[in-house]
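Technical annex B. To support the medicinal chemistry partners, we prepared a structural model of the target in complex with S-adenosylmethionine, based solely on the information shown next.
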Amino acid sequence: MTVLDGEPGAVHGRVAPQALNDAMARAWETISERPLFTDPYARLFVNAAGPHELPATPEHQRSLIDSAAARTKWFDDYFLTSSSSGVSQVVILAAGLDARPWRLPWLSDTVIYEVDQPEVLEFKQRILAESGVSAAAKYVPVPVDLRDDWPKALTANGFDHTEPTAWAAEGLLPFLTDETQEQLLERIELYSARGSRIAVEVRGDAYSDLSCWLCTRHWEVSSTSAADLMSRYHRTATPGIDEPVAHSVFVDGRKL
Ligand code: SAM
């Protein structure tokens, strides 16, 4: 399972491989028989990035695609619910090559800040600009390392911490040390007005700590395990494949 079509692009090796894996999974899901969502842009990223393969065996690849699809669908639903409840400021931390600003039906007053490494956001913007597509909301890229002072960069780009925000951290925490994860959550809490929302993918053994942490700071929290999501979306875990995302828990909350 490799590129879907097209010529190898010039950016090969510069975009985070994990972001490309997720884009490739979304591209395959999009052309599957019964997709949970469609992401027409994932294919553009994969083709432009050049030769890149999902790791491991076909069974493992199926498992990766199903897990990534269930996760994407859960985060999509989270954003649509936040939007319909009136939250018009969105911050996607480690957005990678996900194209939600372009593919979800946002209300026209929505502002979406995407935070990731500069080369990832530059690549994404370039490919989408070459394709002539426009975001369905006001799109603000914030190229900054999440180990640095990213709230300062967000604020410099127009983020307003007095307004409710819908935050998301999907597929991010494994890349950060425990200390940086704590700092990230503390910053989200500090910059969240009442009515803000949060959605985080967390390791199964860490979700109760995160839920408690949020509850004591007046967030109303609920959670769904990856296994429950797979079952909800009629996807089955591949026997013998121990996929890390299969142990994830998806935590969402609302600040009271
Ligand atoms: N959320 C996206 C998705 O589901 O497609 C991307 C997930 S990908 C597994 C992880 C992303 O985290 C990559 O895009 C990578 O560039 C970003 N990332 C990892 N460490 C980072 C850091 N310290 N600062 C900014 N971005 C980071």
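Notes passed to the chemistry partners:
The first helix runs from residue 17 to 30.
Residues 1-12 have pLDDT under 50 and may be disordered.
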